[in-house]
Here is the input.
Amino acid sequence: MAITASMVKELRESTGAGMMECKKALNETNGNMEEAVEYLRKHGMAKAEKKANRIAAEGLCRVASASDKVAAVVEVNSETDFVAKNATFQEFVDAVAVQAVNSSAADMDAFMAEAWNEDPSMTVSDKLVSEIAVIGEKLSIRRFKKLEAAHGCVVSYVHGGGRIAVLVEADTDVVNDEVKEALNNVCMQIAAMNPKFLSDADVDQDYLAHETEIIKDQINNDPKEASKPDKVKEGMVKGRINKQLKEVCLLDQVYVKAADGKQNVAQYIAEVSKSVGATVSLKKFVRFETGEGMEKKVENFAAEVASQIH
Here is the structure.
């Protein structure tokens, strides 16, 4: 029987399950709506989707490495910090990181549709649904990123037990303990200082335009500065932008371990290059912070208990 979009829509509305799960259920049951509902219930998909309106902003970030040249970072969210500390959940997040480092997926949809490494009979999405059924809380594989060094290495760092995870890719002819230690220090810099860009050459023009507009408004809204000549104000804008870029560009940031308190990250890497006798060049970095940019759920246990009683 041909499965139509309206059938998928009907099943999705009646069960709350995801579109792809509904389509699969209908295919498995030859379009029988009642059997498709049972299929979703038996596979835990309907139960899992009932939790979809909850906020999953806790969780963990984890990394996995395939070699010195390949590593991946993932963020998997849970509803509560309690579950994030659960051994079963932590093992699942570690497995997702391993899945990511072996993945060829270009985006989350492709990643979720991949065969699960530990059991190819199910997809990553199926495994997630299974974990939700076991743990009893909404879980979400939010994002992943994989870095592969064509010439050099990739170093990773996890901070706060999984609150922040960082990858750094470097181009270098020498990959030894000294280089890896230096890159680990750079990872810690990124974790602590949260740069937005590698260098000023990588600054997004939309970001630059937005920040420039804000600084202009700040000047025009300050009675003392607004009355200054346009040429002076242009210089003020440029100066403040340059100062801000030194804070958001990794290579321009003051290195947190600098003995003199002045050395920037670029100078630190140049120092390391001189020490190992090879040019070490930072190429890319990835920083994931758990729940970053997500709404946090405000717990109200009294209200939750009351809602369950009535």
Strands lie at 58-67, 70-78, 115-116, 119-123, 139-148, 152-159, 164-171, 281-289.
